[in-house]
Amino acid sequence: MDAKRLTRLALLTALALIIFTVELQLPTLAPVPGMKLGLANIITVYAVYSFSAGETAMILVVRVLLGSLIAGNMMSLAYSMAGGMLCLAGMLLLRRVIDKKHIWVCSILGAVLHNIGQTCAAIVLMQTSTVIAYLPFLLVSGCVAGALTGMAAQLVVSRMNK
Amino acid sequence: MIRSQKFWIAVCAVIFAAGLAWSIILLTMSHGDKVTVTRDGVVLYTLDLSKEPDREFTVEYEGRKNVVEIKDGRIRVKEADCPDHVCVRTGWLTAKIPIVCLPNRLVIEYADSDLDAVAG
Q: Of A41-45, A46-50, A72-76, which range is least confident?
């Protein structure tokens, strides 16, 4: 990997971490475990449509790891990682069939996969399936948040390619 | 079909509608008075809220604590030393939606109403 590419990836990771940290200060709308805007995903969605699968994965893994450290909440790492990985895998597949004018659609489906992934992690770790009761609320919020971050990412992709 | 953008938009719409409907069903589902307090997959207490006196008790997990309060036939997590405090902010247990503390692996939920019918 050349220095220019490495620098771009590092910059994007730093940017994602800044967005993540700023979002930590925002109050949550509803007391649902795992519910959040996920603004840092703007970077992930942008990367999915601008970089290779491996490079996007690097940005995401480093962001999730360092993000948990910054948040001081290593206990949530398993949930974030499970959700993040499923979301990433899904979006990397979807980018083959969803074009650059519908990035927001890819982002919604990514958010939904993230919610499913984190719920599965919670079921395994908590050893109870009752936490699935939060999934419908996460799906609704995921659709809304995913659409918003996806539109933001779409804007970035179209402007950056000019 | 999967190359059609409209197909994926429809998928999103279906997921959103299903999530909404599922949420409403959960919020309006009836429940009994029996509540279970589970930590790390093990049921610690099975309580009948209609008979419980007002009291508080502490559940510990790896040195971290959740203070559970029972008052006027309702139950909630009063205090917690987890980082996110989602369990405290959930408030009183009202519907078939459990109070969950992910870091401390604590779940407070209404027991299955079907079981109540059989037991009662």
A: A72-76
Q: Do A105 and B5 touch (CB under 8 A)?
A: yes
A143/B12 touch (CB, cutoff 8 Å), yes or no: yes
Tell me if residue B99 falls in helix, strand or coil: strand
Specify the residue for token string 């992930």: A44
Q: pLDDT by residue (tens digit) across A92-132?
A: 999 999 999 999 999 999 999 999 999 999 999 888 888 89
Where do the structural domains in chain A lie, given as residue ranges? 3-160
**Of the candidates A64, A79, A74, A75, which has an alpha carbon nearest to the alpha carbon of residue A115?**
A79
| Cα-based angle A146, A149, A153 (whole degrees, multiple of 5) | 125
* pLDDT average, residue stretch B42-68: 90
Q: Is-contact A126 A113, C-beta < 8 A?
A: no
Interface of B with A in 11-70 (CB under 8 A): 11-12, 15-16, 18-23, 26, 38, 40-41
Q: Do A75 and B3 touch (CB under 8 A)?
A: no
Cα A151 from chain centroid? 14
**How many residues belong to chain A?**
162
- Chain A CB contacts of B5 below 8 Å: 98-99, 101-102, 105
- Per residue in B8-43, pLDDT (tens digit) is 999 999 999 999 999 999 988 888 889 999 998 889
Q: How confident is the model at residue B97 (pLDDT cuts 50, 70, 90)?
A: confident
When the candidates are 1.10.1760.20, 3.40.190.10, 1.10.274.10, 1.20.1530.20, the CATH number that belongs to A3-160 is: 1.10.1760.20
Question: Is the minimum CB–CB distance between B5 and chain A shorter than 8 Å?
Answer: yes
CA angle at A55 for the pair A51 and A61, rounded to the nearest 5° = 130
